[in-house]
Amino acid sequence: MTIAIGKAIQEGRNLVEPEAYELLEAYGVSVPRHRVVNSAEQAEVASAELGYPVVAKIVSPDVLHKTELGGVLLNLNDAAAVRAAYRQIVERSRQARAALRGVLISRMAPPGIEVIAGLTQDAQFGPVVMFGLGGIFVEVYRDVSFRLIPLTELDAAAMIREIKASPVLQGVRGGRPADLKALADLLLTVSRMAVENPEIAEMDLNPIIVYEEGLSVVDARVLLHHKTAPA
């Protein structure tokens, strides 16, 4: 159990995104450069250090779906936009009565192919790794594959091949192929995280932007198992 997971369980909450990033980085997974700030002035300084354009996200254990709350503001290109975004997120958290633990400022990732990976719980078999088409349409198209943990290298490769969008990853119609080895390694890492941290109930890495070389997990959500008090 990591320190962040232990602290979150003790406080009866899930990981906030900076903690999820920290967990991923501990396992060698690439995430965007980022800072957590607590004022509009800090947001401006962080953005200048990271380099524009940036994205601003709400950091709150009370908000599972940041986009639905309006807690994700993209393509901020200057200090004025960053300051306005910070104030907007603070106001939206106040309206939602969500405990605010800062605003996450991160460098916008270059465009690439968006996929999703994660961990979910099957009612019969327990933890399973999931992989599929990413972005906001994942719940519409349901182009996903599943495997029980622990994954093998053969499992990871098969999961990538099984989705209908697999030809896109391989570079159809002149498109550049995605880094399939990096994808397979990520799926194996998700499996290893689940095995080594059984406190993780669900993990949602969406989107993951895949390039010809490497990938970046742009958004991460990690839910934890919490023991219920005896009646």
Helix content: 25-40%
CATH topology (level 3) name of the largest domain = D-amino Acid Aminotransferase, Chain A, domain 1
Strand-residue proportion: 25-35%
Number of domains as seen in the coordinates? 2
Largest sheet geometry: 6 strands, antiparallel
Full CATH superfamily name of the largest domain: ATP-grasp fold, B domain
Low-confidence regions: none
Between the first and last Cα atoms, what is the distance in angstroms? 27 Å
Q: Which sequence of SSEs, written as H and E, runs from N to C? A: HHEHEHEHEEEHEHHHEEE
Radius of gyration: 18 Å
The number of E-state strands comes to: 10
CATH C-level of the largest domain: Alpha Beta
Can you tell me the CATH architecture of the largest domain? 2-Layer Sandwich
Walk me through this protein's architecture.
The chain folds into two domains: 33-107, Dna Ligase, domain 1 (2-Layer Sandwich); 113-224, 2-Layer Sandwich (D-amino Acid Aminotransferase, Chain A, domain 1), CATH 3.30.470.20. It has nine helices and ten strands. It has helices spanning 3-10, 17-26, 40-50, 66-69, 79-95, 138-141, 153-162, 166-169, 180-196, and strands at 34-37, 54-58, 72-76, 103-107, 113-122, 126-133, 144-148, 200-210, 215-217, 220-224. The strands form two sheets. Strands 5, 6, 7, 8, 9 and 10 form a six-stranded antiparallel beta sheet that branches. It has a four-stranded antiparallel beta sheet with strand order 1-4-2-3. Strand 8 (200-210) and strand 9 form a beta hairpin. The longest helix has 17 residues, at 79-95.
